[in-house]
Each structure stands twice: as structure tokens, then as C-alpha cells.
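From the shared-data thread, chain only:
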Amino acid sequence: MGAGVVATFGGVTLTPIFSSWQNAPYAGDGANSPRGFRRPHKESGTSFQMDYENVPGLNAIEREVVAAYQQAHLLHAAAAMDSLFGDQGEREERAEAVARIEEAHARLSELAPEGTPGREGGPSYVELLSLVRELGLGDRDAIMPGEPEVPWAVLPEPSLLLFCCLDLMHYSFLTGNALDHARGYSRRKRLYDLPEEERAGMSKERIAGEHGDRNELQMRLHRMLERAIDDSAEARRGHMHAMGFDCGYDLLVFISRYEQDPDYVEGFVEGCLERISEDEDRVHPDDIKASHFHAMWVDPGLSPADRNDLVLESLKAECEIREDEGDLWRL
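Structure, as C-alpha cells:
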């Protein structure tokens, strides 16, 4: 999460309310389905798929190694799906995927620039998290068009933040449950990279707190790097749409601060209709169909206020209403 549509899928352009499917019947998973706009979900221990190699400031070798690290995680995710109900051979395939991730991260470590946060010569994770919190950066999954740009002048360069983010991604992977399902591997203890004598003097509560801070910093950096790659108004609209879709489809949450943002509302309604279309025959066979909601939403004879009352308010009634994202990224 979030992770937005344009950054994840390399330039998908989204247009205003239902323009891509308003002239066709609601098609569920068919050709007119908005499912193609969804960002991939985060498996435990990995980050949202993203073209990190396009972060500004990387040289050709760094781009190649960053892309290889991302590809290793994608291969592991595929092996994880295969081994979900698999046999010993598939668990060994997952172990091979873990080994590829380790090898790719070792290459990243060799290339990590001087001054990378969390490494020798750079600010600590605590210092960097304190700074981005103070600046209010990366706390939201989507930034509306017109909101201020990232003040890069007071931050480490995007390339340094990328290497820090990938280090944190690797830390999250090694301490998550993914390794427990790979033959010959097991997850590492939290804060395993601290000197043992320092870690031994920490309480369980402090270890848990600093572990959580690292996960928060990774997510904030991910969102900031999305903006480093593309902070255009078009990208921001895409992020809003993707977030709305996820809220309506998976999370069943409506964020009221974005109620006046057409891209968020568009994505939310599309996500709700996608979810309803998948479950309506099994769960609510006698209720109103997704196609009925869609017909009302695109009916040119209805005023915007009537569309909101008949469609948006009905869909919101099935969801939790939140003022803002809060800790939504943890779900």
C-alpha cells in the first residue's frame, strides 16, 4: 500500500469518474473491470511492488542491482504462493528464492553510498524517522493534487533514502514470518543487527517499539520515494484512485477527509462495486446488484447530489468511516 497505480504499473493514466467503463455494463473481472487498477498487496516481510530503479540519482549499476533485488522478491512471492499448499519440493524452491534475495541484498550492501541512513556515516533510523515525522512526510498513502512538494533540500538525497528503504525492507523480510516457511531458514530476532550487549540491555517493550519504528520508517520512505519518481498531478490522482479502490474493495473503510476528492470517490465506488459483483450471487442474491448501482452512478439524468444519496451513501453504509488514514497502512 500505498503505493500508487502510476508508480506501480508504469504509467497507467486514469481519467475522471468511470470514463473507462461508463458506456458498458458492469463487467466484474471482465474487460471493463477496474481490478486492473489495483496495486499488489504486501506479503509479510516485503514492500509494495514499485519501480525503485527509477529513483533519481542512481547510476546504471545501482539501477541494475536495485531492479535485481526487487525481482528476487517477486520470485520469492511466486514461490510462496506455490508452496502455500505445497510439498517439500516447493518449500525447497522457496528456500532457493530466499537465497536469491540474500545474494541480491549483499550486492546492494556493497554499493550502498556513504551517508546512507542506518549505516555507518549516515543518520540513524531514529534520527531520520524523527525528521520525516517533524516534516509530516510519508504519513499518508496519497497526496492530493495541489498539496506541497517534498522539501528535498532538508533531506538526504533520494538515492540515499532508497538504500535505507531497501535495508529496512530486508530487515522486515528477515524478521517476518516468510522465512519460517522456507526449508533451512527461520526468522531472525528483532533488532538482530544491533550489538548483542546493547540489545541485551533493552526491555521487550523498547525492542518492540524500535521494531515498529523501523516498519513505520520503511513505509514513510516508500511513500516519499513514490513522489521522488513521479510527483505530478496525474500521479497524485492515480494514487488517490488506487487508495479509494482498496478502501472500497478490501478494507471496507471510507476516509472522510477525501470525500470531496473525485479520484478517491471514483476509486472507492469502483472498489465497492467490484467487491459486490464478486459476492452478490453467493452472499446477497436478493439485494440490489452492482450493475444497478453502476447504472445509477452513470445516469446523466441524476444530479450529483442524487447520485451521492443513492449510490455513495449506500456503499459507505457498509464501511467504517474514518476521518483520515491513521494507521491504515498496518492493515
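Residues 1-48 have pLDDT under 50 and may be disordered.
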